[in-house]
Amino acid sequence: MSLEVDGVTIATNANGYLENISDWSENVAKAIAAKEGIELTDRHWDLINYLRDEYINNNENQPNTRTIVKAMSAKWDDKSVDAKTLYDLFPLDPSKQGGRVSGLPESRRKGGY
């Protein structure tokens, strides 16, 4: 499978994850999100940037939803952030769908919490 962004064909696997993390850009993220019916907001970008930072700078870590809740609570200085808050952003699973939009490899972890 593939994705067409800015006149460039980007290879993806059968589940829509990028084959090569270096193919990611903000425009690629927007294209993946649009394909999934998501309009990216500042909060989406906060989560995307967090997931990318964890993967790239923390030994390819792909945090689960509970860990993302804690990180976004701190980032947004909002103690009311919970899993529902994140599922409102990425309804199919914040860690997996968020990871796909973030250009990360497909997570083999089961569950999201």
What does this structure look like?
The protein has 113 residues and is mostly helical. Helices cover 45% and strands 7% of the residues. It has one domain. It has a two-stranded antiparallel ribbon with strand order 1-2. A hairpin with a 2-residue loop joins strand 1 and strand 2. The protein is globular, with a radius of gyration of 13 Å. Its main location: cytoplasm. Keywords: Cytoplasm, Transferase. Its EC number is 2.8.1.-.
Q: Tell me the fraction of residues in β-strands, as a range.
A: 5-15%
Q: Classify the secondary structure makeup into a structural class.
A: mainly alpha
**Neighbour order of strands in the largest sheet:** 1-2
Percent helix: 40-55%
Distance between the termini: 29 Å
Work out the radius of gyration.
13 Å
User: Average pLDDT across residues?
Assistant: 94
Task: Please give the count of helices.
Answer: 5
* Global geometry: globular
Largest pleated sheet = 2 strands, antiparallel
Provide the number of structural domains: 1
Enumerate the spans where pLDDT stays under 50 for 5 or more consecutive residues: none
Strand element count? 2
Helix and strand run = EEHHHHH
Question: In short, what is this structure?
Answer:
The chain has helices spanning 26-35, 42-57, 65-76, 83-89, 96-101; strands at residues 2-5, 8-11. The protein is mainly alpha-helical.
Topology:
Layout: E1 2-5, E2 8-11, H1 26-35, H2 42-57, H3 65-76, H4 83-89, H5 96-101
Antiparallel strand pairs: 1-2
